[in-house]
Design brief:
- This protein is an alpha/beta fold.
- The chain folds into 4 domains: 234 residues, no CATH class; 172 residues, no CATH class; 102 residues, no CATH class; 64 residues, no CATH class.
- It is 50% helix and 8% strand.
- It has 34 helices and 15 strands.
- The strands form 5 sheets. The protein has a 5-stranded parallel β-sheet with strand order 6-9-12-2-13, sandwiched between helices.
- Helix 4 runs antiparallel to helix 6.
């Protein structure tokens, strides 16, 4: 019994929501408004926007200083759609950016009076997306961070003298004699409830069925002046009176029930102050299962027959207070339950077609007729739809301008595709792959979802064959990188500069018409399962040869994968791992390189034959053509044309005088090694040095054997220099690129045996 008592005591003293859901007076509510106006004065559209700020945040721009940035940022949507979800939804970068942009537009109010339909092919996760979004919204709206207040009236019986309710009760008792058993029981319950209310409470509590904010009870004509006096002259007050997002607080009217109560009370009490003593506020509690604040309808859910809802007990008590059954009519539609909340349709078919048609006037006018009463509806309307279901609403052309389609395609971001594999099969799958191979599997899958021809890509790079060493003929591999927010290093300087904001927007814009065909999300998981179970058993790390063999052997997939894609992917992989090996083998005297670059930046400003002291290094420089030419060839390559050397010299001198010296060093006080010019020269200098880093080792057979024997007893027999170079190489591959020791050895042997250094040497 002690255990039972302790358990019950814990329930009694534990987390209890009822304590902070008690109504508070209008005056107490106003104090809350003054204390935290941003949280209290907001409608459903602002709360929806705040939800994304809370769980998604600002996002990360990998190129923050790029003048051609289009704010295509990386949003972490895991808190919104993944964490704690029974069925996680993975929003790729493209969809996340579209969604966040729509949500930001929602806040301003410009996108209200619309229904947002998320459409996409089968297997893209539409229903999962909406369910997870609504679950998180419900949680957030019931937390302090997302909480809003709604109106509840506490009608004071003492201030509203009324006629004896005995006659009303007597009439019900009289009708009991003439009623059926079920009717008798219902009317008996009404009599008992009225008696209890009358004897136990000095109030008749009337909740606003439309969940109106208590501030809307202030007469519209007086609201602007009231709010002006309520707030000090601060940043919020300025925002309140100027930001379009807050127009609703000045324009919206309370529901007809609240309006009728106010009018009836002001007639009786003759004082607005006394009326507002009966206005209270209570937190707006959301409960999807009860349809309170959130209602979700599936196609098979039959429409309710009772389109007009009321509360007969409450109506009788209101009639008693005002001695007039027509003065305050407590009737409303089912839409009231989700007013200032979310009304959602799962698939536009069957009964949901009827519901969507019914929404036409509601969305267009923001009104719904309940008998002869006009009921305001300010809800967020959401739906999901399959492409083939669009025919169900084609005949309603007048509705088309009220629909905003937001496409949920198959995943087009390779990083997100990989995250799905990790979620389904476990994060340990990475241990079975050489680095980049798992992502290359995702690239093959995504290639089936992209258009073969991209006008935006061809307008940017009209001759794709110049990148045949790194990319496919359709530029899909490059487009995938752009979709992930990454600009590849292998692009020429000229093409990098040509990737303007306008071009980037066009490329990203094409994604709205992609991902509607190809290998679906469900099928990609099945294909990966077959691939993984086939090769993970071998005990060897899964490499590109296994990946290519697998897809070449899948005859049913050949039609989905673009011709030549696998060969191009292998070439890109070879180029990438060659850069990793070079980067890992490369070490240099950074101090010496810094000195050479700074001397060059200074020297280009003087004519050959001059002798000057560098202001950055204090080196005495004899500036000659040979000195400048030598540095430039170390920058660009020994066989580069003279005209390109001179162009580099000219561009460096122009950048130095117009920006580096005058703006960054003299005005901003920036150290010369942090200037844009220095960083650019250093990147190009190091790149060219790395291009040649493997040359001394290619002809040395001992180097290859030492890699193979690494960490074994035979490794100790090699020359000290070779041991140091190999150890440095393996350690860097493991540290920088997540290779295991076994993987680092395998990739080095692969690079040497396939002669990658010579294959990718520029002619």
């Amino acid at each position: 019994m002690d255990n039972i008592s302790n358990a019950m005591r814990h329930i009694d003293t534990g987390s209890d929501e009822t304590s902070h859901r008690e109504p508070i007076s209008f005056e107490a509510f106003l104090r809350l408004v003054q204390k935290n106006p941003v949280a209290i004065v907001r409608n459903v559209f602002q709360v929806f926007n705040d939800l994304f700020k809370e769980y998604v945040g600002e996002g990360v721009d990998e190129y923050p200083n790029d003048p051609e940035s289009i704010q295509y940022v990386s949003y972490d949507c895991s808190e919104l759609f993944i964490k704690g979800a029974d069925h996680p939804f993975f929003a790729d970068r493209l969809f996340a950016n579209r969604l966040v942009n729509h949500v930001e537009a929602l806040r301003t109010g410009a996108q209200q009076n619309k229904i947002y339909i998320f459409d996409g092919p089968h297997g893209c996760g539409k229903s999962t997306f909406l369910n997870n979004l609504l679950k998180r919204f419900e949680e957030y709206a019931n937390m302090e961070a997302g909480m809003r207040y709604e109106t509840v009236w506490r009608l004071d019986r003492g201030q509203l003298p009324q006629e004896d309710g005995g006659s009303d009760t007597a009439s019900i008792l009289e009708s009991l004699l003439r009623s059926s058993r079920s009717e008798k029981r219902q009317q008996f319950d009404i009599v008992r409830a009225m008696a209890l209310q009358k004897s136990n409470s000095p109030y008749v509590e009337v909740p606003c069925p439309c969940h109106d904010n208590p501030l809307l009870m202030i007469p519209k004509a007086q609201r602007r002046r009231f709010l002006d006096e309520l707030f000090d002259n601060n940043a919020f007050k300025y925002t309140l009176f100027t930001d379009k997002a807050y127009e609703w607080i000045f324009h919206d009217l309370p529901c007809t029930i609240c309006t009728s109560l106010y009018d009836a009370l002001i007639t009786r009490l003759k004082s607005p102050a006394k009326v507002f003593e009966m206005v209270h506020a209570v937190p707006y509690h959301f409960n999807r299962r009860l349809g309170r604040g959130i209602s979700v309808f599936s196609p098979g859910d039959r429409p309710i027959k009772q389109v007009i809802q009321t509360n007969e007990i409450l109506q009788r008590m209101i009639n008693q207070l005002f001695s007039d059954s027509n003065q305050v009519r407590y009737i409303h539609s089912p839409f009231a339950k989700t007013n200032n909340g979310i009304y959602a349709l799962m698939d536009i078919k069957s009964h949901n077609i009827e519901r969507l048609i019914e929404l036409h006037n509601v969305i267009s006018e923001g009104l719904h007729k309940v008998e002869d009463i006009e009921e305001s509806v300010n809800s967020l309307f959401l739906a999901v739809m399959n492409p083939e279901d669009k025919k169900n609403i084609k005949e309603f052309q007048s509705f088309s301008d009220r629909i905003v389609y937001i496409t949920i395609p198959y995943v087009l971001d390779l990083n997100t595709e990989v995250e799905i594999y990790r979620d389904v099969f476990g994060a340990h799958i990475d241990d079975s792959f050489l680095p980049r191979v798992l992502h290359n599997f995702a690239r093959v899958i995504i290639s089936s979802r992209l258009s073969l021809r991209s006008e935006a890509m061809l307008e940017w790079i009209p001759e794709p064959e110049k990148y045949s060493r790194y990319c496919d003929k359709n530029l899909q591999l490059l487009k995938m990188e752009i979709y992930t927010g990454h600009i590849p290093e292998w692009l020429s300087e000229e093409d990098r500069k040509a990737l303007t904001a306008m071009r980037r927007r066009r490329i990203i814009g094409e994604s709205t018409n992609e991902g509607r065909q190809g290998i679906s999300g469900r099928d990609s998981i099945k294909i990966f399962n077959t691939f993984y179970t086939t090769y993970a058993k071998s005990g060897e790390l899964i490499d590109m040869a296994m990946l290519c063999n697998f897809f070449h052997g899948q005859k049913e997939l050949k039609a989905s994968i673009p011709e030549g894609l696998l060969d191009s992917l292998l070439t890109l992989y070879d180029f990438t791992i060659l850069q990793e090996v070079k980067e890992s083998l490369y070490y240099y005297n950074e101090e010496q390189i810094h000195r050479e670059i700074l001397n060059y930046m200074f020297a280009v400003n003087f004519e050959p034959g001059s002798t000057e002291t560098c202001r950055f290094t204090n080196d005495r420089l004899h500036i000659t053509e040979e000195m400048l030419d030598g540095f430039e060839r170390r920058m660009l390559g020994e066989k580069i044309e003279k005209i390109k050397l001179l162009n580099l010299r000219k561009d460096t001198q122009k950048e130095y005088t117009s920006r580096t010296l005058t703006q960054e060093i003299m005005v901003a006080g920036m150290p010369p090694v942090e200037t844009r010019l220095f960083r650019s020269l250093k990147d190009r200098y190091e790149y060219n040095l790395k291009e040649k880093v493997l040359d001394p080792f290619l002809e040395n057979e001992n180097f290859r054997r030492a890699i193979k024997d690494y960490a074994g007893e035979d490794f100790k027999t090699y020359d000290k220099k070779i041991r140091e170079d190999v150890s440095f190489l393996i350690a860097n591959l493991m540290k920088r690129y997540r290779y295991t020791e076994q993987g680092a050895q395998a990739i080095c042997i692969y690079a040497i045996d396939n002669d990658l250094a010579r294959r990718f040497t520029k002619p």
